[in-house]
Design goal:
The structure is a single chain. The chain has 172 residues and is mainly beta. The protein has one domain: Pnp Oxidase, Chain A (Roll), CATH 2.30.110.10. The chain is built from 3 helices and 12 strands. The protein has a 7-stranded antiparallel sheet with strand order 3-2-6-9-10-5-4, sandwiched between helices. A 3-stranded antiparallel sheet has the order 1-11-12, with no helix packed on it. Strand 11 and strand 12 form a beta hairpin. The chain is globular. Bound molecules: flavin mononucleotide (FMN). The site of flavin mononucleotide has 17 residues, from strand 3 and strand 5.
Length: 172
């Protein structure tokens, strides 16, 4: 049997290449309000607990969303559909859009915290920051969910996924 790789043997490239095999759903995290709003695209959202309703996501602390999140201590998770690849692209910063410009071209509303939520997302979860766990250059954000809605009018049997560095459509 092969010996296990030594602990020191995993470099960042090997780690990234292994993680590319993990398919993930895509969400836009919205932070801030009015002119002080920005956000980021993530695959790292995961449920933490149903009682109390809470979730986690991971954020690189060099992201422009980090200082806004720390200051406001609220955010929203917008679960994206295949129709919203454009939102995913804008919130990943790839086209160069920054801050409020990432919100252009689609309709937004608010739930409890005042953070913008995407009207036509598959689902939206409005959250208060419960804890920020800083590790290395990133942080695990623990959010307490204060409102959650499935946007029924947008519900199609299709989800937006990301796998091996490419967007894909998950269809039932
Ligand atoms: C599919 C996809 C998933 C991503 N997942 C994460 C994530 O979980 N955490 C994170 O910090 N950045 C993630 N990113 C990168 C951020 O979206 C991107 O770095 C950020 O929006 C740009 O930061 P800026 O606001 O400083 O321009 C992801 C990007 C893509 C395209």
């Amino acid at each position: 049997m092969d010996r296990p790789a030594s602990r020191a043997g995993v470099d960042a490239a090997a780690f990234r290449s292994a993680m590319r095999q993990l398919a993930g759903g895509i969400s836009a995290i919205t932070v801030g309000q009015d002119d002080d709003r920005t956000g980021l695209t993530v695959t790292s959202v995961s449920s933490l607990s149903a009682d109390p309703p809470s979730l986690v996501f991971c954020i690189n602390r060099s992201s422009s969303s980090w200082p806004v999140l720390v200051r406001r201590r609220t955010f929203a998770v917008n679960v994206l559909s295949p129709a919203q690849i454009g939102v995913a692209e804008r919130f990943s910063g790839r086209g160069g859009a920054k801050g409020a410009a990432r919100y252009e071209g689609v309709r937004w509303s608010r739930l409890v915290t005042g953070t913008p939520v995407l009207r036509d997302a598959l689902a939206v979860l409005d959250c208060e920051v419960e804890e920020l766990v800083e590790r290395f250059g990133s942080a695990v954000v623990i959010g307490r969910v204060v409102a959650a809605e499935v946007r029924v009018e947008a519900a199609e049997p299709e989800a937006l996924a990301y796998w091996r560095g490419t967007y894909g459509i998950l269809r039932l």
